[in-house]
Amino acid sequence: MVAFADLSPSFLVGLSSLILPVASSGFLDAGNVLRSTVCEQIATEVSSSSVVYYTGSSQYAKDNYHWSASSSQASECSFEPATAEDVGIALRILGQTQTPFGVKSGGHAANANFSSTPGVQIAMYSFSDVVYDSATQTATVGTGLLWDDVYAALEQYSVTVVGAKVTGIGVGGVALGGGYSYLTNQHGLSIDNVVAYELVLPNGTVTDITSSTDPDLFFALRGGFNNFGIVTRVTLKTHPQAQVWGGRISYSLDQWEGASKAIANFWANVTDPKASIYNTYNYIYGVAEMSIIIFYDAPTCPEGIYDEFLLAPHFEQDISTRSYVSFLQSLPLNATSGLRSVFHWVALEEITMPVLDMVANETLAWAAELIDSSGLIVSYDVDPYLPTLYDHADSPTAYPPTRDRGYSYIQVYYGWADSKYDATMIEAVDASAQHMTQVLTDDGQDIANVAVYPNNAPPDMALEKMYGDNLPRLRAIKKAVDPDNVMGLTGGWKF
């Protein structure tokens, strides 16, 4: 994926000047700004440390901004709660008035209405604490943070947590949705490392959820997103973290074959869990190129693991020893900010040259097909993981629905400019995923029914395809926790 939550100043200015759709009654203030009755009720009842913003405010623009234009909307107002109790007050008001709302952590959702809304936009920025406990070897982090902030804050203790592998991603969607990382082969998904959630229930009650206090909710929150309330803080296991070795190597189209051979040989031969690669076949603004990110979780890398990548012809490289956060922030993954976006996800049992040739062909074929539909970026990413990547959870999680074995994955991303092509792009990404699944199945890979990662699923994805046999249990937990369906007023994957 070539993606990063980069706030474009021109986008923010444009968003702050939008005329708001009104979901509830309101009034014009002295500055001719429409003030929603619901927003004013929230502002009146919460503590003075929490703030409601309206159009024309730069903070309102920031609160409503999303990395993907297809996920951005203009809300009636934005609300920045400073305490979990104030989140609870807002939830009670929103439920009583049946007002739509969105909950934004980092704002990296691609699908429309998932963390944005025409109603009340809740932005979690004030939950920005990082508290390290050396005795329990855990870190409690606020869901208003980016993972970059978390990694940087923990660096002084020589520890880290399993979070996003791309810079600019918020804590919330990863800690509630899954979380694949350069550290996943060693420590599992981000949700496998969660030990507690501070959760504001739909009725406004603030509670701590652990495997012992509420096993059902602890299961459901790890992969179940915002169906059960609003999470304000997450406590995760920490792991020792020294400097790391790695960086990016870039290959032009005529150099793809050598790079693909290196990927196939890495998958076939490297079992060291400290070694990880992230490979992107890209067509970006008319140029075909491949970027391979190589990573080793130590200051130096053993000989032989990445020699083939470095010896293959390439046009650019940036490889060095540096801190983990510096490694992540050195990667130029912000080219898609402000575009409309859609993702998809296809599992792999094996990564061979025929598989990589298929991926390369899909990249070039769909780039040519979509260029007349304002398609600016087409990216097919191949993420190899060890079959043991799902062996690190202490108890079952909502996602993945089965942990019998681990898979590698193809992540598909399309970025385009014009909203009139939204349906075209979603149909295209579905068609590409279906085609690759069929090719892989015909080649003997048993991947047709592997769960799709919810954070990289297109908006038309069926819940059964992501949650499998866990879905009935998740629906029962949702009904018990939220009988009035308050969380149904917000977006996302709804149980």
Automatic annotation (TrEMBL):
Family per record: Belongs to the oxygen-dependent FAD-linked oxidoreductase family.
Source organism of this protein record: Suillus luteus UH-Slu-Lm8-n1
InterPro entries attached to this UniProt entry: BBE, FAD-bd_PCMH, FAD-bd_PCMH-like_sf, FAD-bd_PCMH_sub2, FAD-linked_Oxase-like_C, FAD-linked_Oxidoreductase, Oxid_FAD_bind_N
Molecular-function GO term, any one: FAD binding
Alphabetized UniProt keyword annotations: FAD, Flavoprotein, Oxidoreductase, Signal
Signal peptide: 1-24
Descriptive protein name: FAD-binding PCMH-type domain-containing protein
Domain FAD-binding PCMH-type: residue ranges: 70-241
A Pfam family matched in the record: BBE
Domain of life: Eukaryota
